[in-house]
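Page 42, continued from yesterday. The earlier attempt failed because a stray header line got pasted into the input along with the sequence. Redoing it now with the clean sequence only.
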Amino acid sequence: MAPDFLPESFYADFLSDVAKSRLPSAIRSLLPLEATPGLISLLAGKPNPVSFPFTSFTFTARAPPSPNGESTGRDSTISLSDADLAAALQYGPTNGFPALVEWFYELQRVVHGREKGEGWALSVGSGSQDLLAKAIVALFNPGDSVLVQSPVYAGVIPLFHSAQVEQVEVEADADGISTDALRNILKSWPANKKKPRVLYTIPYGGNPTGATASLERRREVLALAREHNLLILEDDPYYYVFFGPAESRPPSYFALERSEGNHPVGRVLRLDSLSKVLSAGIRVGFASGPAPILRAIDGHTMTANLQPAGLTQAVTAALLTSPEWGHAGFQRHVQSIAALYKAKRDVFDAALRRHLGDAGLAEWSTPQAGLFFWFRLIVPGKEGGDSAALVRTRAFERGVLALPGTVFLPDGRKTGYVRAAFSLLGPEDVDEALKRLAQAVRDAAAEVQS
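This time it went through. Structure tokens are written below.
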């Protein structure tokens, strides 16, 4: 049975003034009518296809693992059909290449249990960052506040800042957002100040902490969202880079609000990305969430970049719909990607312990998803901590580069934490990098003690 969902009128208080006042594209709003049988369209200034020099497009791709998890060691040759190539080279639908949009709809059904007809829609973007930026424009007015899981993704801080949105940090730990902290912020919110309407979170392998929110925390956060009338902006690019067994995987917020059938759905705007599992350069991400918000995002796309790139969408669709892939093949592929990064995580964790942990120079929680370690450097003899000075000077001089934790804090305050990515380096480079970092910490300690 389909769940109840929040009515479209509910979102009037959540959409920004820009989203409400944006005029529809005079041309793009009429493009779907061109499919009317027998219609002769004089509408759009589409270039004539005979002017395009591309006549065919064929690529090779590694096949996903077999059902037993073993590599096939085989490449497949995939060609775009003449019709798909023609569609990819021409102006297309604002919300994405139709075959890819439909494939993503089915993915959300298979993975998150979300059916069509539940008040939600889906749009493709030029990576999830593109959709995130447009969602912020759609949801916030200057002077609004947003609740952000802290530490927070460094790439979202300037987006909120440029939108003149106050970022209210909600403390998080290895189990995700602290619901005690969130509850206290909401209950003690000044009566004369407009309350936040949106909570921003990266629940799997959070960037920068690598933390994955537990099921208990997710349920508590969702309950608070209902109590205080919040939308959850679920930015989840590391969902498919989860290191635990399938049975221990907590559901997404997008799935959780559907599975708890006592409440109407429609409080989650979910962002997915293919960057970590297919290719970062194809720039394909997709948003799923309340239809009025997706329409506002599409309205922004109409005026900003018209549509996501057709050719990369067509290539992605051709790969994912090919006989060896499909939704089952995609899931086998992402499981192999997660196994790859789990092995790299274990190498980094062991080296971190060997060079810094055992010497009392760092402390951390081992990530259960994502591409990052978040650890606090401990300089013996020094109270508190400021990793920025150490990382940007001593560590760099020792030949190792990482990100100081201050860049993940909206107010830019000092912190002893550091973010390190483990996705690219081999074991020898990991070992050498952490050995150099440990020496940089010892250099700082020697200066304190001198």
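Notes: The chain has two domains: 43-61+75-321, 331-449.
Reminder to self: strip header lines before submitting.
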